[in-house]
Amino acid sequence: MNNEGFNNFNSQFNMPPQPVPESKGLALASMFTSIGSILLFLLNPLISLLGGITGIVLGSISLGTKKGGKNFAITGIACGGATLLIELFWITYLLR
Q1: Three-state DSSP class for 32?
Q2: What is the pTM of this model?
Q3: Which stretches of 1-96 are DSSP H helices?
Q4: 63 vs 16, 20, 79, CA distance in Å?
Q5: Which of 28, 58, 74, 89 has the maximal Cβ count within 10 Å?
Q6: How many CA atoms lie within 13 A of 35 on its CB side?
Q7: Segment 13-25, tens digit of pLDDT
Q8: Contacts of 5 (CB under 8 A, 6+ apart)
Q9: Which region, left, alpha or beta, applies to residue 31 given φ > 0 means left and ψ of -120 to 50 means alpha?
């Protein structure tokens, strides 16, 4: 009796472990928070300021841990910085 078929069948189960997918949760949260803070600026500037700061912090943590989603984290940091600049110009305009 030929056992070659059984050996080929068993070799399919001896596969190397699959890589774990990268986690992009913090980077996505940074991006969504920062973009949302820009949109919320017209409704409530204080919430917008907190959202911008939160986006920058989450993006920085995501880049520091190197868990993936680098482009999302950079987008979150950039939009959070833009939110802070908008807030700064708005505050200086009101105090003038």
Answers
A1: helix
A2: 0.74
A3: 4-11, 25-40, 45-65, 70-95
A4: 29, 18, 15
A5: 58
A6: 11
A7: 666 777 776 788 8
A8: none
A9: alpha
